[in-house]
Amino acid sequence: MKYEWELTEEEFGPFYSYIQDKNVTDIDYNGRTLWIADLKRGRYQANAEISEEFVERFTHRIANRVNKPFNRTSNVLEAETNELRISIVHESVAVSGRSICIRKSLPSVRHTVESMLDSGYCTLEILSLLINCVKAKMNFAFCGEPGVGKTECAKFFSRFIPPNQRAITIEDNLEMHFREINPENDCVELQVSKDLSYTDAIKLCLRQNPKWIILSEARSVEVQYLLEQWSTGVYGFTTLHLDDLRNLPDRIMNMIGRSKDADRLENYIYEFISVGVLIRQYENEKGMQVRYIDQMCFYDRVCGKNEIYMLLEDGKLVSDVIPKDILKRLRRAGIQEPFCCLETCAYEPLDMTFIRRSEDTEQEEL
Asked: For residue 2, what pLDDT is reported?
């Protein structure tokens, strides 16, 4: 359940400045030291004094806010605001000291077309193609290691879902903020709990007339039900922990568990997941954290064969071959040029503008 309260310096103390910093994504206290995850600086130990008195006071206030006990018996305390996800573990369990984790999830989109292209997050061709794939109602799997920004990437591409196509989000921690990001869209936000499992939520969706089902993270057997819903003509997004898009079918099969229907389920993966996107993060020479789309591929099943078409590898375009079935779906959506779209066609980097103007001048002089 999400709680509404004003985030004040009095309540959050030494955490407050990091909560206010837009580049900070995670604030972690391990009982002794404070660690900060920053989009630019990476993860670093903060030079901040965290007293036992503050930890006790902070925990007491959070427990009062959510009206939950916190002691040796009830040793985990969790709370959500519109911007924060707070998790506190009692020292009877976290023997190294009371653990506090605060994850920031802002109701906004960090990415724009310009920021993606200017930062080298992806190429113009790939960004255009991915936007076109959303418009052509394809199913996406956003993949990568924890903390690389899979949800942020999905939030950006959710902006291209047409307003009149009902989207239903399924999350345990509300991080998509679909309604706030897309206020004009028809949207239903479901939050799983002990009373509503991921599987139950996915099954419930079909009775709510969805056009899109967005599962915040595929973790276990619920992915089978997601694939089955997508097979009915519903479209969607999900995220997975993965290190290579070629491993996605095996990863999902392991999540589902081997069964007598293994072959059928594997075929479902290739047939009903269309687009794979893998995001990575590295530290550049200035010590800044850089995120980018490392891999992009199409999954396709045609004439009884399952195929993976890699278009992007190591952040570079390695192929422009689009499977016939994918191409047909793009054409059906009125997209004749897959690598070009209205949202990106006006973009032109400054250096390219200079080069082109120079070339034009040379031609005029000739």
From this structure: 55
